[in-house]
Amino acid sequence: MNEYYKNLLPLIHTGFKNSIVQYTKIPSFSTETAFSCQAVNNQKIIIANTLTNSFWYTDDKKNVQLISNSKIIDDELFELIKSLFNIVSSQIRPPEKQVFGTDGETFYFEIFSKDGKSNTGKIWSPDKNSAMKKLTNISDDLYLLGAGANINSYIIKNKIKTLIIELKKISRTLPQLKKMTVLTENQVTELCIFIENQIEKNGCDHSLKNTFEWAERNEINKADLIDVLECNGGFCDCEVIMNLPENCSLEIESGNNEPDYKNPFKTPLNFQQTEHKVYTKALFSSSEYNNNNSYTKNGELLIPAPFGFKPKKRVRKSVHFFNGTESELPSEIGIVKEIIPTNGKEFAKKIRDFKLESLSKFSERDAEYYLSRIEKIEIGKPMGTYFMEITGIGGTKIDLKIHKVIFR
Q1: Four-residue CA torsion sign, 129, 131, 134, 140
Q2: What's the whole-model pTM score?
Q3: Binning pLDDT at 50, 70 and 90, where does residue 407 land?
Q4: Measured between alpha carbons, how far is 263 from 306 in angstroms, rounded to an integer?
Q5: Which residues are CB-contacts of 104 (< 8 A; sequence separation ≥ 6)?
Q6: Which InterPro entries would you find in this protein's record (predicted)?
Q7: Contact 406, 102 (CB under 8 A)
Q8: CA angle, 284 as apex, 388 and 298 as ends, to 5°?
Q9: Number of H helices, E strands in the chain
Q10: Please, where are the H alpha helices in 172-310?
Q11: Pairing of strands 302-304, 330-331
Q12: Where are the alpha helices (DSSP H) in 283-406?
């Protein structure tokens, strides 16, 4: 996936050097798009870029060509866009670089300061009626406006004004995320210099060997370091040098999530159970995906760990994980396999009968949601899980998601 982004972004962001605001939309199954708002020669413009084909699905990337258009916009719309993106980039979490992608759409929102530093927010496939869905709809309209579509900018302005009011109300109800500094600005510089010197002597073996050597010498927590590196695209020594941001410290959220005793697995409250529904598939661990932080034995039945459950082995902070029903060890990936036909009640009891602490509250409703997410997926396909923060008028809620995984 890193190679995908490294090759895609310079192309889709062509002409974005002077961006003040920037939006990038990356679908799983259609063509990537992006727009940039800029002030050029006392004029405010939107540059709208797309590609002739989906970059991901085209085998020969050299055949993918850029399609770029631009449109002059008035000062009021320009300032409204800046205000909206400023609020958004502060309310949603920065993008976390992952080894795999998911089916759906990923949206990136960036706003740049005068010195060129950026603040970025990321959303994945927001719920239909959420404030974040309104945001992505407005952003799509702005892209189409820049691409030359016949869209009334007055209507877009009113939508932005309304959403800004809604987001400001929401921001007053959001809990403040606790941050932990892993590397100071000076330590980032020292780490990169150390790695550069080592690579000049010995080359890069596509591991984090030199990074870990420096961390051990400087008594840096290895698990926290891996988390912050992965969030910034540092999966080997040379990527640490290329991808770590300059002139700033590196922080991660402390991640102290309190368990939810009323809804421990965060099964969506709007999920409707189906009476007498029979299911024939579940998720199991596979040795094929041991590189994706899978510590369970091959063929072990997997259930999402409850919200706030601390894994017994290290997993990435950017994803949630399944627990093995025998070992209670974590796995980031599960494989769809056939099971003896069952219903939610029978399956929930089976899971509770394993007598594991993390699965002792697994209810019939939790079981039906889990099984219903898997039933339509093909046998042998990999799936992952995470908790989605959904921002709406009433504040922020957290829902469990179980999704198909696309390895890039």
Answers
A1: negative
A2: 0.53
A3: low
A4: 9
A5: 27, 28, 124, 125, 403
A6: DUF2695
A7: yes
A8: 130
A9: 10, 16
A10: 185-202, 209-217, 222-230, 237-243
A11: unpaired
A12: 344-352, 364-374
Which two tokens mark 313? 């082995």
Residue 114 has pLDDT above 90, yes or no: no
Secondary structure of 158-183 in HEC code, one letter for each residue = HHHHHHHHHHHHHHCCCCCCCEEEEE
- Residue 275 CA to residue 247 CA, distance in Å, equals 57
Give domain limits for the chain.
Answer: 2-171, 179-253, 279-407
Place of tokens 């413009």: 45
Structure tokens belonging to residue 375: 């039933």
Alpha-carbon span 317 to 210, nearest angstrom: 22
Write down how long the chain is.
408
- Distance between CA 86 and CA 80 in Å, rounded? 10
What type of residue sits at position 138? I
For residues 72-96, average pLDDT: 78
Token digits for 354?
Answer: 């394993």
pLDDT tens readout for residues 144-173: 999 999 999 999 999 999 998 888 776 655
Q: Tokens for 177?
A: 């995320």
- State the Cα–Cα distance between residues 113 and 263, nearest whole angstrom: 41
405 close to 374: Cβ distance less than 8 angstroms: no
**Token pair listed for 133:** 């869905």
What CA–CA distances, in Å, run from 265 to 261, 302, 352? 9, 14, 14
pLDDT of residue 98: 38
The CA distance from 246 to 241, in Å, is: 10
Taking only the tens place, the pLDDT of each residue in 335-357 is: 999 999 999 999 999 999 999 99
Q: Which residues contact 12 (CB under 8 A, 6 or more apart)?
A: 24, 32, 33, 34, 49, 50, 51, 55, 66
Longest dimension (CA), the chain: 70
Query: Mean pLDDT lowest for which of 61-75, 274-288, 308-322?
Result: 308-322
Residue whose structure tokens are 């959303």: 123
